[in-house]
Write a structure and sequence with these properties.
The protein has twelve helices and 44 strands. By secondary structure, it is an alpha+beta fold.
C-alpha cells in the first residue's frame, strides 16, 4: 500500500470521526431560539453626538429600561426610564425633538405587517411624570417638535392631544372602516410602499401634512377566522387586486393654530408614496407616481398658500423605485438617489430641482444612504462596490471626490451614525462570523472599541455538525449568476448526493449574500448533515447588478427567472457528485411561485418541489406590486396567464408539496385553492397542508417546527430516499470559485 494512500485514508477517517463526535442541528433547536443572535435593541443616537440610547431587557425581573451610553467609552451613563409599578412594561420608544419627552409603547398588537395598535404614554424625563395619551388603543402617535402636543390616529381619524391642558382635539371626522382613512395608510400602501404613518409635523409644530384614503370603491377581501369558537368569523378589509380600483388618495394640510384643514391640489396624482417636510417649515416635499409607476414626480408644496411646483421628475421604461433617500440641505438643495445611469447612485440637486452633479458613479449599486454631514461636507452611504454579495460603508464629498471606504472586513457592513456624524456603530457579519457591533470614527473609519459580539453563539456552533457556505458564480443563459452551495460536512466527491435548490427570485431581491445565517440556513445545515447538497442561485430579475439585469423580467414575471433556475439545476446536475435523478427545489411566497413553475416547466430536471404560500396567478395579487412589474391584466393578459402554473397542471410529473396559511392577508389562500383544483381536475397526485388562521409567515407556537418537519420528511421520502439511477460521470462546467 502506498504511503500517500494510507495518509488519505487516515485523513478521511479523522474527518469522519470529528464529524461523528459533533451534534446534528435539530428543528426544535432552530425554532426554539437556540441559535438566536444578540443585538442592540432600538438604538437611538442622542443629539449631543456623544451618547446613544438602547432598550434593555432584564428578563429575570421582567423590567425594560432605556439606558444612555457614552459612544467613546461605551460606559452606561444613566437610565432615562425603566418599567416599574407606576410605569408599565414598554416595548419601544420615540423621543421628542428636544429629547425631554418620550413616547412609550405598551400593549401593542399587530394589525398587518407593519401596522400596530397600542396603549401609549408620554414620559417627561425632567418632571418624571407619565401621561396616557388615550384610553383607547391608537395608532402612530408622534410628539410635536416642541413636545407640547402629540398627534395620533384612532379609528381612521386624526387627533391632536395637548399635554399641558390634557385636552384632545379631533382633526378629521369622516374616518370610517372600509371607507375613509386619515393619517395612516391602507393595506396596499402599507405592504408595498412600506409605511404606515401618513402624516407629519413641520419643524415648528404649526402644520401637519397628512394623507386621506377614500377606499369606498376598493373591492372587499374576506377570509374566515376559525379560532376555537363554534362558528368561524370573517375578517374583511379592502384589498385591490391587479387591475381593480385603488383608493383615491389626497393630500391635506392642518393648521394647528387656526384649527383648519386645507386641501392640496396635486393634479392627476395617482399614488402618493412619500411626504417629507423640508428644512424651511413652510415647505413640504411630496412624491407622486402614476399607476404604471414609470413616472415619478417630486413636488414642493408651499404651506403658506398651498401652492405646488414640480422639483424633479423620474421616468423609466419599466418602473421607478420608491425610496427614502432624500435629504434637504440648509438651502433646501437636496440629495437624491436614482438608477437613471443604469445603476443606483447619489445625485445633488439645487433648491429648484436642477441637477448639480452626480456624486457616485460606477458599475455598482448604492444600497443604503445614511445621511449628510453639512459641516464636513461628507455623504455617508453603503454600497456593493466590493462585490455584489458584500456591503461596505463609504463617505464621499458632495462634489463626488475624496471617497473613503470606512469598513474593512469582507461581508455585510451596516452603519448607524451619531447625530453629529462623529461616530458610527458598525454591524458586521459574514457567512462565518455572527453579527458583531463595533464603534468607529466617521472621519476615517478607524475602530474605537468593540461593543457587542456573538462569540458565545459562535463557540456553541463549533459543537454542531456544520459546513461552510461556498460562494461562486455559475454561467447561465449568458450571465454569471451568484451562487452559494452547502455540502455535507463529511462530503465525499466520489459519492452522489441529492440536490435541493432554494430560491426567491422576486424583482430586485437578493438571496446570495455574504452575511450570517438566517433561521432557514440552519435548516440547510441540518439537511446537509442528512445527506443533501443545498444550493441557491440568484437569476435574472434579482437585484444589485444594475437596472437592466433587474428589469429584464418586466411584463413577464416567472419567465426568465424560471428559465434560469431550470438551467442552473441542469448544469449543477452535471457535477459528478450530484445525482441528476434526485433534484428538488423549494421556495416561499414569490419563491413558491417559482418552485411550482420550475417543477412544471422543468419536469425533465426536477423530481420534487415544495411551495409555501405561493402566488399561482398575479391576477390575485395587489395592484401596487403587481402592476409595477406587469401593468394591468387588461393591458397584459398573456404576461399574467402564460406563467400562471394552474393554467398547465397537466405538466406535473414530479412530487409536489403545497403549503399555505388560511389567514394569509398578503398572498391569499385563493392562490393555493385554485392550484389544488387545477391539479385535481388534471388528475394529478400531490401533497398539501393548510395551517389554520396563520398569516403569510406561518408561525406561532409549534407551527414553524411542524411545517419544517413536514418539509423535511417530504424531501427525505421524495428526494433523498428515492431509488437512484446510474448516470455517467461528467466534468464540472463553468463554476468559478
Amino acid at each position: 500500500m502506498k504511503k500517500s494512500y494510507v495518509l488519505l485514508v487516515l485523513f478521511f477517517l479523522t474527518v469522519a470521526t470529528a464529524v461523528g463526535q459533533k451534534k446534528k442541528i435539530s428543528l426544535e433547536e432552530i425554532w426554539g431560539g437556540v441559535f438566536r443572535t444578540e443585538g442592540l435593541d432600538v438604538l437611538r443616537s442622542m443629539k449631543n453626538g456623544i451618547e446613544y440610547t438602547v432598550l434593555n431587557h432584564d428578563k429575570a425581573n421582567g423590567i425594560r429600561s432605556i439606558d444612555v451610553y457614552d459612544y467613546k467609552t461605551q460606559q452606561k451613563q444613566r437610565t432615562i426610564v425603566s418599567s416599574s409599578a407606576k410605569i408599565p412594561v414598554f416595548s419601544s420608544y420615540e423621543f421628542s425633538d428636544d429629547e425631554s419627552k418620550l413616547i412609550l409603547a405598551t400593549q401593542v398588537e399587530p394589525i398587518f405587517r407593519r401596522s400596530r395598535l397600542g396603549v401609549y404614554y408620554v414620559y417627561d424625563s425632567t418632571s418624571e411624570s407619565l401621561v396616557k395619551i388615550s384610553d383607547n388603543k391608537i395608532q402612530e402617535p408622534e410628539l410635536s417638535p416642541d413636545g407640547s402636543k402629540v398627534a395620533y390616529v384612532f379609528e381612521n381619524n386624526l387627533y391632536v392631544h395637548d399635554l399641558a391642558s390634557n385636552t384632545t382635539k379631533q382633526i378629521t371626522t369622516d374616518g370610517k372602516k372600509g371607507s375613509i382613512i386619515n393619517g395612516v395608510t391602507d393595506w396596499v400602501y402599507e405592504e408595498e410602499f412600506a409605511f404606515v404613518q401618513a402624516y407629519q409635523w413641520n419643524s415648528n409644530g404649526k402644520k401637519i401634512g397628512f394623507l386621506r384614503f377614500d377606499e369606498t370603491n376598493v373591492p372587499n377581501f374576506s377570509m374566515d377566522v376559525y379560532g376555537a369558537n363554534l362558528y368561524q368569523t370573517q375578517n374583511q378589509f379592502k384589498y385591490p387586486k391587479a387591475g381593480e380600483e385603488n383608493a383615491k388618495v389626497s393630500l391635506h394640510m392642518y393648521d394647528v393654530t387656526k384649527g383648519e384643514v386645507a386641501n392640496i391640489d396635486l393634479g392627476d396624482a395617482y399614488y402618493i408614496p412619500r411626504i417629507k417636510w423640508m428644512n424651511n417649515p413652510n415647505y413640504l416635499s411630496v412624491q407622486t407616481i402614476n399607476r404604471h409607476q414609470d413616472h415619478l414626480t417630486l413636488h414642493e408644496v408651499n404651506a403658506k398658500d398651498n401652492s405646488v411646483k414640480v422639483l424633479l421628475e423620474e421616468k423609466d421604461a419599466a418602473y421607478v423605485d420608491i425610496h427614502d433617500n432624500l435629504t434637504f440641505l440648509a438651502d433646501d438643495s437636496f440629495i437624491w438617489t436614482s438608477e437613471k445611469d443604469g445603476y443606483n447612485h447619489i445625485y445633488l440637486h439645487n433648491s429648484d430641482g436642477e441637477l448639480m452633479n452626480q456624486i457616485t458613479k460606477g458599475p455598482w449599486e448604492v444600497t443604503n444612504y445614511y445621511g449628510y454631514d453639512q459641516n464636513e461636507d461628507r455623504i455617508y452611504y453603503q454600497s456593493v462596490e466590493n462585490g455584489s454579495i458584500n456591503r461596505d460603508v463609504y463617505s464621499i464629498s458632495s462634489s463626488g471626490t475624496n471617497k473613503k471606504r470606512l469598513t474593512t472586513k469582507e461581508g455585510t457592513n451596516a452603519a448607524d451614525f451619531s447625530a453629529d456624524y462623529s461616530y458610527f456603530i458598525n454591524t458586521f457579519s459574514n457567512t462565518t462570523t455572527p453579527p458583531e457591533y463595533t464603534l468607529h470614527k466617521a472621519a476615517n473609519g478607524k475602530k474605537v472599541t468593540d461593543i457587542k459580539d456573538n462569540n458565545v453563539l459562535a463557540a456553541n456552533l463549533k459543537g454542531y455538525e456544520t459546513s461552510q457556505k461556498e460562494f461562486s458564480t455559475i454561467n447561465i443563459n449568458g450571465n454569471d449568476l451568484n451562487m452559494w452551495m452547502i455540502k455535507p460536512a463529511d462530503f465525499d466527491a466520489s459519492k452522489e448526493y441529492p440536490l435541493l435548490l432554494y430560491q426567491y427570485s422576486g424583482p430586485g431581491s437578493q438571496s446570495v449574500a455574504n452575511r450570517w445565517n438566517g433561521a432557514n440556513d440552519y435548516w440547510y445545515q441540518m439537511m446537509a448533515s442528512e445527506g443533501y447538497i443545498i444550493a441557491c442561485v440568484d437569476g435574472r430579475g434579482t437585484g444589485l447588478k444594475g437596472r437592466d439585469f433587474k428589469k429584464v423580467t418586466q411584463k413577464e414575471l416567472g419567465k426568465y427567472e424560471v428559465e434560469d433556475q431550470i438551467a442552473a439545476a441542469k448544469k449543477l446536475s452535471e457535477l459528478p457528485y450530484i445525482d441528476e435523478d434526485r433534484t428538488g427545489i423549494w421556495g416561499w411566497s414569490y419563491g413558491g411561485f417559482m418552485s411550482t413553475n420550475a417543477l412544471l416547466k422543468g419536469s425533465e430536471v426536477f423530481e420534487m418541489a415544495i411551495a409555501v404560500a405561493p402566488v399561482t396567478s398575479w391576477r390575485f395579487y395587489d395592484t401596487i406590486y403587481t402592476e409595477r412589474y406587469m401593468q394591468t391584466p387588461q393591458e397584459n393578459p398573456s404576461g399574467y396567464d402564460d406563467n400562471s402554473p394552474f393554467n398547465y397542471p397537466e405538466l406535473l410529473t414530479g412530487d409536489y408539496l403545497l403549503v399555505h396559511g388560511s389567514g394569509d392577508d398578503n398572498v391569499h389562500l385563493q392562490n393555493s385553492m385554485r392550484m389544488i383544483e387545477a391539479l385535481i381536475q388534471a388528475d394529478k397526485d400531490f401533497d398539501w397542508a393548510i395551517y389554520p388562521d396563520k398569516n403569510h409567515g406561518i408561525f406561532g407556537g409549534n407551527t414553524r417546527n411542524h411545517l419544517f418537519r413536514k418539509m423535511t420528511e417530504f424531501a427525505h421520502e421524495k428526494l433523498r430516499d428515492r431509488p437512484k439511477n446510474e448516470k455517467p460521470m461528467v466534468k464540472p462546467e463553468e463554476i468559478k470559485g
